[in-house]
Specification:
mainly beta, three-stranded mixed beta sheet
């Protein structure tokens, strides 16, 4: 018997984005970040301008949410080019993913606040 596992889709978490793809940006995901799934909140490393999943323990700039990965990329052994939602969107929090050490509702709320502080903001909403 063959078991098929379906991946994550942007429609799992992205509910609205700006017209003409204004919300999207190309980003480089840092080598060593592993497989970064659709819906993962990423932060931007100040020194290199590359991105990695946002974690509360980081001190390199990536602790601040800067966007959300649109489609899954593999940055296990090399930098990977990704498309991120960087501005002007509405997302549902149940579909978002975070770095390994983000495990409390308070930490997730702080990340959602950071997304809302982007200009224009990414608004994180409850439910579909």
């Amino acid at each position: 018997m063959v078991t098929l596992t379906e991946g994550r889709y942007a429609s799992d978490w992205l509910k609205r984005e700006a017209d003409s793809l204004f919300s999207r940006e190309e980003a480089v995901i840092l080598s060593g970040a592993g497989v970064v799934e659709s819906g993962t909140v990423v932060g931007k490393i100040t020194a290199s301008g590359k991105y990695k999943p946002v974690t509360v323990a980081a001190a390199d700039g990536s602790e601040d949410a800067a966007g959300i990965v649109m489609w899954t990329v593999d940055a296990t052994s090399a930098d990977a080019t990704a498309v991120i939602i960087a501005r002007d969107a509405i997302v549902v929090h149940q579909g978002l993913k975070y770095g390994a050490d983000v495990d409390t509702s308070g930490e997730r709320a702080a990340i959602h606040t950071a997304l809302g502080a982007l200009n224009p903001p990414i608004l994180v909403r409850e439910g579909a």
